[in-house]
Here is the input.
Amino acid sequence: MAFFGNLSIKSKILSVVFLIIALELAMSAGAIYFLDAVSNRLTRLMDVDARKMHLAALVKTNLFEIHRAQKNIILHPSQEEIERQSDQKTLHLSRLRLNLADLDRLTNQQERYAFIELNSRLDDFMKVFREIEALIPKIDVFPNGQRSDAYAAAIALSFGSARDAYNRLSEQIDGILQRMDESMARHRVESEDYFKLALTSVLILCCLGIGVGWGAGLLVARKISAGLDAVVTVTDAIARGKLDTPVTVTSADEIGRLAASVKQMQGSLIEASEAFASQNWIKTGIERVNEAMRGQVRVADLCRNVITEIATYTQAAVGALYVVKHRSEPMLAFGGGYACTRAERIPKGIDAGQGLIGQAVLTKAPITVQDVPAGYIKVCSALGDGCPACISVAPLLFEDHAVGAIELAFFKTPSALQRDFLQQVLPKVAITLQTVRGREELSEALARAQVLTEELQQQQDELKATNGELEEQTQRLKQSEEKLRQQQDQLEEANAELEEKNEYLENHKQIIERANRELERSQREIEEKAEQLAMSGRYKSEFLANMSHELRTPLNSILLLARMFCDNKEGRLTPEQVRSAHIIHSSGSDLLTLINEVLDLAKIESGRMDLRVERLDPRELARQITDQYTHLAADKGLPIDVQTRPDCPTQLRTDRKRLGQILRNLIHNAVKFTEKGGIHIVIGRPDPGDVLPAGMRAESTIAIAVTDSGIGIPTEKQHLVFEAFQQLDTGAARKFAGTGLGLSISRNLARLLGGDILLFSRIGVGSTFTLYLPDELRLPAPDPEARIDRPGLPRKIEPAATPPVLELQSVPDDRESLGKDDAVILVIEDDPLFAEHLIGLCRLKNLKVLHAPSGQMGLDLAAAYLPKGILLDIHLPEKDGWAVLEALKQNPNTRHIPVHIVSVEDPDIEAYARGAIGFLTKPVQAEDLERALAKLENVFERQIKELLVVEDDQNLRGSIVTLIGNTDVRTDQAATAAEAIAAIRSKRYDCMILDLGLPDMNGLDMLRLLEGQAQEVLPPVIVYTGRELTREQEAELQVHSESIIIKGVRSEERLYDEASLFLHRIVKKMPEKQRRMITNLYDADMMFRDKKVLLADDDMRSVFALSKLLEEKGIQVLKAENGRKALDLLDTHSDVDLILLDMMMPDMDGYETMQRLRSSEDMRNIPIIALTAKAMKKDRERCIQSGASDYLAKPVDLGRLLSMMRVWMYR
Amino acid sequence: MEKEDIENIALDLLIEAIYRRYGHDFRGYSKSHIRRRIKQYVERRKDGCISTLIPEILHNEELFETLLHELSITVTEMFRDPFVFRKLRQEVIPFLRTFPFIRIWVAGCATGEEAYSLAIILKEEGLYDRTTLFATDFNDAALEKAKIGVYPVEALRKYAGNYQQAGGTGSFSDYYHARYDSAAIAPALKNNVVFANHNLVTDGVFSDMHLVFCRNVMIYFERELQNRVLGVFTESLVHGGFLCLGTNEDILFSDDRHSYRSIDGPARIFQRLAVRNFR
Here is the structure.
């Protein structure tokens, strides 16, 4: 069948046709054969059997006829009869012979025997017949009918033997005939059977032919249609788009070829559609990447989107995109990543030619690496990780320039399609990248331009602000300039006038001189008298002043105690007693007021009232008056009405306190003397009709009128109200309690303020007191003579006046617990309470205190203890403060001690002249006292300073001494290290200037030596050298010295500067020994012993300073100045316990160092403390993220560092 | 309420939001400056106003990055105001020479031009090897550019003119390699320059500086912040160290004015005076 299958359809059809024809032929042949056979049989049946039978029948007939004719001749021997019968007989006999011959010819073998029998029987018959025949002629018929004997004999013979022979012959013929009939019947049946057989055979053949033909046809048809169907199915499928439908037809025929060509077509279709799909895939990919790139304005976003899209699209496991920063400097910067694990290991920047990606950029050609070794890069997911099989790197080319590069890692080697995709998409990415970068640069440029404008604007703003401030100042300057100009004009005017006057004077000089002489004489007399008068006045004032002080002190106690009783905190007093205490308190207060007023008056009269000129707003004043006195007046049911007139000036320069005092007096008076009506106060310029006090001008004067509707003052007594200790009359005095000093003081104060008080009053109507003040109070320049005169005065009165009657109370102080270096303050104060207060304050400031309750004791203590500073009271028993101050300043041993005065007196410039450094008025505020103490400290630190100059060059040494030496600084010189060491051991210096190049010893070694000797406290050292130093030298020098100066053009300037700095600074550094003691306390830090710490910091000073401190703890410190060196050190020292790492170092910074450390196996767990100056939480988090165990802000706080180290080194 | 008042409120809230959300403190910046910048930013976005920016900034970190970028763009050039650099050579360098090693802080270095300008001067004065230059800025992108040190060639041409006027003694072309349209600063100038992130508003002092160079930075700050920054400089400077400000900046009205004396008025060079109460 296979063979058949392989036949072509034509052959198949032909073969089927041939088969059918062959079958037809075979059938025809069979039919013919059978027909022929049947025909033969029929022919035989007809020609042989039927003829034989016919012949046999003929033979029988012939015999019969012969026999009958012979019989008839015998019986009817008539001549005519004999003749007819003889003819008959001859005819049949000849026929018989013929028939017999024919029959013989036809006889077959089986019949031969019967035929022979026949022949023999015929012979018998014939013998008889001839015998008869032979008789017939003898038979003569006799006319009597008598027959001759021959007859008889013939009859006898014919009916006897001839009949028998004939019968037997006829029997034989019948037998033959029967047999023949049987044979014929048999033959006919045979023929019929044969015909049936032929018919059947032909039918069978026919059926067979049909069947085979049908079958073959069917087979062929099926073969053909099946193949076609398969092909059609495939083509249908293809038509439907199922291109991958397999073509199963494999036959070699046309269908096979068709299938093959369909297959081929399918192949090309698949190829085409695959190509189409590929193109489509690539197009879609490009579309997606384009989509991802669309609208991106920032390179970073673009990169991220592009790498993500490309990586997902190509099913890369990991991807990274780098961007070339500059065309000229092909440096690649990390642009974006996809699924990058351990992002910190991905380099942020790569040089062109460095690594694959750099190479790709350099050669502008893609690189693919197959069979990536394990561990090259890991692709991690939450569930596991693996190694990619292939790394593909490709540059992004734009106009033949690499603008970036992309690296992708694949688990499977990327297909050609993926490579095609990359090849097609990358130029587009490159273009977009370039465009976006261009746009970014453009917008950057635009932004920069804007920023530039912005900066200019900002600068302008700044300038404007500065200008504004400057302008204000200029304005002020201009104003003062204007004023100066006016003054100058005035001066010029005055000059001119003076000149005029001069002339005039010149003229009158002689007259005047004459008059002068007379005047001088009378003046001398007047002066003498005035002197006496002034003296007595001043004596009075001084006395009053002193008296009131003496009175005030006990009064203070009275008031204090009365107050306590009033409060009655313990509740032991009866209400009656409390009322009494109230009376004591109010009386005391009145007394205090009186004393104060007396004192004020005395002060004014003795010219000791100090004024403080301030600016104030009259309207503000009006408000204050209203606020202050409404209540007071309301108590008496009086309204107060304060009115500011529109012409009132906007500002007033005068002594606010004194003005208040005047107004208080006037208003109190007004309220006091008014029963009904009200108080009316008007502030403004004087009325045009007013008579102003002498020397005042209406336009620069302010008038404050206080009008009451009281009893009024009679005209004749109006001048008396301003006199001291005067009241209108005793009656009024009784009715209206008061000292009577108020108005006197007010007028005196008003005059002191450059104005006056005028009174207008009518009995029963009321009084108006008008205070006139100049807008601006100009204080007269202090009269130097008067000042110099005064110091002696108190003493003149005092010596005998105040004998030491008080029992002196000394307050417990620190004299028992004084250390050698303690800063001691001496408090000279007789009031034990206040002294205690002062002592408390001093102790708060860690100062030790001595207390002296009297001047003399103060002097003794000062001489004995030489305190750092003195707080001095003025009012002291025995010897007052002024005397103490003078004595202190006269004693050369105590002269330098700063003295600060704390007194109830008002501040006095004089005190400074006498050597006090400050003046504080009681009651003292804590802040004031603190300031005073600070002042003292400031001064006592500024003593004579000791300077040591160590320099081998004598000239230079000399010039340094000249440069720095002054009265405050005592300079010692040393030419060698030995001298210097000796000098330092002998005395304490405030500063040492050291040249490094000494003849006997290197300066640094000398410092080391001195540092090593713990008993010496090294002064601040300034290294002054001409040598260039290495960083290490500098670092070590920095540890030992305060400052290093390299000799040069500007070095002297700096030397002077630095030296004076160290000579005058306040030393707060603890001495080394003390510091040691404290560190010993913490020696529980045994855990630090023999530990190894690596310290990496580029600032060698802090490295050395820190390492020194750590080494004191017994820690071995390795030092590195940058990350690289630190890593090198760690290579050789693997036993480091902890790393202190500065984040900001040159070469390799802390972050990178940490990352490298953390990525190495050995260093993964070592504690790292990051030192950073950054403040933001994010920065600190970055430290931790980069691998720091902890971080510490710079400058490093040692305590925190140690506790941190304790935590991290604890095992 | 005026539109501008509302805008000011929105601005204050935005600045506060930025501070509380991201820690970047613009509260002390000059209001007018910040307003102009943010308005520019808002205009460029073509959408919304300052008040609608607030919620976006709070939730969108990327948006904030762009705003931060906008706020931190600066302009600078090499040897800007050449006379300042000439004065530095004349007045400051001789003094710096007396220190064994010199530490210079270029605060707000932006893209590094001024740091490299100083490096060139130090090189020519033979002090470069003794010097560490700390160039700091709070803008990482700018720092990155500064580190790379590549500038457009046309800018370099302008710088060359400045360099001459600043009293350069060599040939400016020795200090860069030009290629295509860019020029890279010579690596020899980069050795001793340390670029680092430092925010003047929040971060602390750099110790023992001999020269602090901070030009046209403080103009963007309000007086209070100016005082703080100047305080940081004052603390950072060694006694006798120098401070160089922008030509329109002054310490005349600042708290620390008494800690300095003026070395050159127009160039705004000041010297730190003796520190009496230190440590």
Summary: Chain B has two domains: 3-72, 82-272. The first strand of chain B starts at residue 102 and ends at 107.
